[in-house]
Amino acid sequence: MKRIASIVTGLLGLACLAGCSTRTDTLAQVGNTAITRADFDQAALKSGGPYAALGDTGRALLLEDLVKRQLLIEASKQQGYYRDSVFVAFTSSTHDQVARGAMLEALAPVAQVSEAEARALYDRQKVEARLRVIMVADGRVAAAARAELDRGMDFAVVAARFNEHGQIPAGGDIGWVQAGSLVRALDPAVTDTPIGQVIGPVEQPFVGWFVIRVEERRTAERPPYEQVRDRAIEAVRQRKRSALAQRAAQRMRMVYQIQVVPEGAAFMAERLKPKTEDLQRSNNPDPNLTEDEKRTVLATWTGGQYTLGDAWTRIQGGEVAAPNLWVLPQVERWIESQVFERALRAEATARLVAEEPDHARAIRERQDNYLVEQFYTREVAQHIALTEADLRAEYALRAGQMSNLEAADIRMAVVIDSAKAIAVLDHGAHAGGLAQALAMAQAGSEAQNFSVTYPSQSPMWQTLQPRLAAMRPGEMTGPFQVPGGWLLIEMVRTRFGAASFEALTPGALDQLRSSALDRLREVRFTEVTDSLRRTIRVTVHRDRLARIPWPPVGAAPALGAGG
Predict the structure, then answer these.
(1) Exposure string over 145-179, b if 16+ CB within 10 A, otherwise e
(2) Helical residues (DSSP H) of 401-505, grouped into ranges
(3) pLDDT tens digits along 154-181
(4) d(CA 11, CA 15)
(5) Which residues are registered as beta bridge partners of 446?
(6) Do the strands 485-498 and 26-30 form a parallel or antiparallel pair, or are they unpaired?
(7) I need a surface site. Which of 121, 195, 200, 520 has the fewest CB within 10 A?
(8) 558 lies in a domain?
(9) Residue 338: inside a domain, yes or no?
(10) Which CATH number belongs to the domain containing residue 471 in this structure?
(11) Whole domain around residue 174: which residue ranges?
(12) Are residues 491 and 511 in the same domain?
């Protein structure tokens, strides 16, 4: 079943290209699709670890699983799954996601970081500062907060009034921070701003406006540079990428002339805010927008208009979370971000990003994964009905592995005070046993020897059976609340015996049910793929496969091997 999981979940995901291979590098032909040496190498690198553990047999099994996966893809196409409206929507969404990711990568590529840059950040982190911060979405609001501070109001009071609940800690106190841990606009304050001086408003594009004050500064405790070098390099790289992304976003905003219309945010907030009586009936009430309201323009860009209907469709469909409708600057920023996403897609389309080989392959891989999962669900999983006879058959196969706890010899004590009970367990880590731990903690209780046999009529010992079964001799557990105090247990020895089917614990039955389902799915899966081979032509070139070096170099461990 683990190999089937690799096939179905996309761990062996490929995007085989019919007609794009030479005759000699084709290892198998499934219908009109070739599985090439490059496809095989990619799968081996991605999830070849378990196959490699099987020696030369694993090489053949890997190709066989690739063939089975392609059989499911070909069959799903023959049955018209790709015409399904859900698949069409999935393809559109996948296309957008891949193109969007590629565009973001193009706008903010991975930056190179020199040793000097990483060292410079490390040197700046020799001091840390405790800051108070006010963060708002609008520069005018930030200016109002600064004005109140200039009039002598306490920073914590102003921060409590202006900071949105949950975004910044109480009183604006964000604690001790080092250089490189804050957004770029705030970072210089850690090392440069005089203690007690208010700075701001300062803007961090696409984040917000800030007013800050340094409360204290001190020397930071740091490990040697060599121990944190990689972390410093990555921190500098991320800051560079963030700066590149922000500059690119600002350029795109200008090029595509993204503008939120006056009163657009206010209109959206007013119409989408739920009324109290509506909230009493539903957690997500429908605003019942009229057609005219849906057509209300919230923003414009060179590609058209963004309407209230567009916004509600995305929110209602769960594609995006709604902004805080009670904070207009956040609503405005949210509208702008939605239009920016449209501009990003337009830019990706103009650049033909999705048609670049790597991105086209990524899209096809996701499409193929979808087709495989849908076909497997419809033709395999939905045909499985587990019966008691199946469970008993699985038990017969696994009876030698099934065992139950028959008896446990323990030492136990009941401690009246819960704090004392916890202290006993703390001492148990280095004491010679429960008796010594009780004495060291001065718990006022003595350890007693006791034997528990199963099946037990006691609800308490029934509940504790899985825990006792997992304990090793000398291990202590607890505290468990019982009449008279808190129970502590030290394991002395356990005895296990073969469990009859009727005596299996609920946990053992669940494991048995899972393995029986896996076995039934495997049988059904084999039946389906064998049937497909009779209608879809499969050719395997085992001589070419035998020439491929094995095991693969650098194969990543993935799912366990086996059928």
Answers:
(1) bbebbeeeeebeebbeebbeeeebeebbebeebbb
(2) 418-428, 434-440, 459-470
(3) 999 999 888 876 678 888 888 898 888 8
(4) 12
(5) none
(6) unpaired
(7) 195
(8) no
(9) no
(10) 3.10.50.40
(11) 126-221
(12) no
Compute the average pLDDT of residues 106-122: 87
Domain count, the chain: 3
**Amino acid at residue number 334:** W
What is the token pair recorded at 32?
A: 């009109």
Domain contains 278: no
How many contiguous H segments (helices) and E segments (strands) does the chain have? 22, 14
Distance CA 456, CA 328 (A): 64
**Residues paired with 135 in a beta bridge:** 210
Residues sharing a CB contact under 8 Å with residue 448, sequence separation 6 or more, in sequence order: 411, 412, 413
Residue range 516-538: mean pLDDT, rounded? 93
| Buried residues in 38-76 as b, exposed as e (16+ CB within 10 A) | ebbebbbebbbbbbbeeeeebbbbbbebbbbbbbbbbbb
323/330 Cα distance (integer angstroms): 6
Residue keyed to tokens 């921190």? 235
Same domain, 412 and 489: yes
Same domain for 162 and 147: yes
DSSP 378-410: HHTGGG----HHHHHHHHHHHGGG-EEEEEEEE
User: Coil, helix or strand for 149?
Assistant: helix
In sequence order, the 6+-apart residues with CB closer than 8 A to the CB of 286 are 316
- The answer on 391 and 459 residing in a single domain is no
Residue 527 CA to residue 521 CA, distance in Å, equals 10
CA distances from 477 to 17, 410, 445 (A): 58, 11, 16
Inside any domain, residue 415: yes
Q: Mark whether 463 and 513 lie in a shared domain.
A: no
Over residues 245-263, the pLDDT tens digits come to 888 888 888 999 999 998 9
Query: What is the Cα–Cα distance from 271 to 166, expressed in whole angstroms?
Result: 25
| Terminal-to-terminal C-alpha distance of the chain | 6
Please name every residue paired with 497 in a beta bridge, in sequence order, or none if there are none: 404
**Claim to verify: residue 463 and residue 394 sit in the same structural domain:** no
Would you state the structure tokens that stand for residue 516, as one six-digit string? 């029986």
Question: Tokens for 382?
Answer: 């939905």
Distance CA 496, CA 122 (A): 57
Question: Average pLDDT, stretch 4-18?
Answer: 57
Which pLDDT does position 557 carry in this prediction? 46
pLDDT at 449: 94
Distances (CA, A) of 260 to 330, 368, 391: 12, 40, 63
Q: How confident is the model at residue 5 (pLDDT cuts 50, 70, 90)?
A: low
The answer on 494 and 513 residing in a single domain is no
Helix 357-379 vs helix 56-78: crossing angle, to nearest 10: 80
Judged against a pLDDT cut of 80, whether residue 458 lies above it is answered with yes
| Cα torsion 381, 387, 390, 394: sign | positive
